[in-house]
Amino acid sequence: MQKLRIGTRASKLALWQANFVAAELQKNFPALKIELVKIQTTGDKILNSPLAKIGGKGLFTKEIENALAENIIDLAVHSLKDVPNELPQNFKIAAVTKRANPFDAFVSNKFSSIEQMPKGAVIGTSSLRRAAQILNFFPKLQVENLRGNVDTRLKKLDAGNFDAIILAAAGLERLGYGERIKQILTEIIPAAGQGALAVEIHADSFDVEEIVKVLNDEKTFQAVKIERDFLKVIGGSCQIPVGIFADILEDKIYARAVVASLDGKKIIKDFSIAPLEKISTFGSELAEKILNGGGRKIAAQFIEK
Questions:
Q1: Looking at the whole model, is its pTM more than 0.85?
Q2: Active site residue 207
């Protein structure tokens, strides 16, 4: 294969991610010609509504997958947390990059930590998952919807529209905004796949798969599979405040998971440890544990809508 066309969203962060993948591939295949194909998604076009109201995760992948289906591109690079659990028929995730910082970051021009924020202070996020957990920990705060790319969100903060905002730490660090981070919110359970990049291809594109497998980090691949297995059972998308973070250390799997009501008043959490040989069932079993512990009642309210 002499040329590879990479499909990506056109935001600064998406282009960073696509260029990172391109550079890694070029490093391993110096003769390969690589072209980035910028594609605008529905999620990029509709910026005045919460994600949960306009369709959830597929908003950032559908148009790119259409280009893959029409052979306009050879592979797609996504933030893994944006990729729906159910991929289109004959598509597959061929590689998952080594996970960067998986946690959320607190950014503010007024406060050095979320604990310092007074009653009624306004914090911005587009994520139901973040909002619900913040309200559970800090019910005195006011959470308001914040959409747009990283630069847009930072500009809204700098314009005084919010007292603080929450963003993925990995995105800020990748774009060189690490100094804007005042606090890493390790207690807020992240989205499935947060911090990792996914490379999506046609399932029968064996030549492309052979090339992109150099990008795959097996530990991350296994961890995010657990997270996505968990979501499949929960029925999770952007419409449900749900978080899951799995990590593999030596011969054990560690995972934290949460399902919450929108106002954060009802929240079901779990922390589980299992031997590595349980990896194929760990995610689904953790989901059943959460559901049976009260999560089913919470999740059903969102699914019915």
A1: yes
A2: no
